[in-house]
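fyi for ur records
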Amino acid sequence: MDRVRPALPTGEEKARAVRLMFDAIAPRYDLLNRLLTLRMDVGWRRRAVRALALGPGAVVIDVACGTGDLCRALGARGYRPIGVDLSLGMLTCGRTRTSAPLVQGDALRLPLPDAAVEGATNGFALRNLVDLGAFFDELARVVRPGGRIALLDVAEPLNPVLRAGHAMYFGHVVPHVGGLLSDADAYRYLPRSVAYLPPPTTMLERLAASGFGAVERRLLSGGIAQLVTATRQLTTSPP
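which gave:
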């Protein structure tokens, strides 16, 4: 008999579970990212940073920054990154060589005034947020008109053969390797957390409703990852 999986947490229970989970896996998080993606995650982050297409010295907030991977890529591109993450454990393991400030904070209540930054990024954390629509509204609040955002997350390949292979890898290999090298429960949760993501069309429409234009979604590496980019509109109605 198949074991019944527990329901995925929601609301404040989800926020607490996510924080504790990332605190637990922080010490080996970067190692497992490189190993489980065959270092493709490095290229995905660089592509997200290039997609911002902002001027030199632009201030960019990386929300759910973890140990600072995207902050380092932003600094290498000539931007001035600020990292925010809910997990103190991840921030403690941060390795930012660009002297980016790393701040513990909630993605839905960013510690910034209105229109404070030229850009924003998010790397593989959309599905871990309690309220994705509220997060898009918060990005619209802190990003200046004309600013850019680049959001990365996992995806499912369109090709049925690739989709089946990816499901096997993500659903079985990732939890097994993660359990050997880090926390088994966390790496069983991460593949299941894809269920939190809304359909692509719904996500893009909600992003536009928050005040972003030129919304675009690109599939990366055969469709196992996605990059969503958008520009903060100059004039918008309140979300």
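The chain has one domain: 11-232. thats all i got for now
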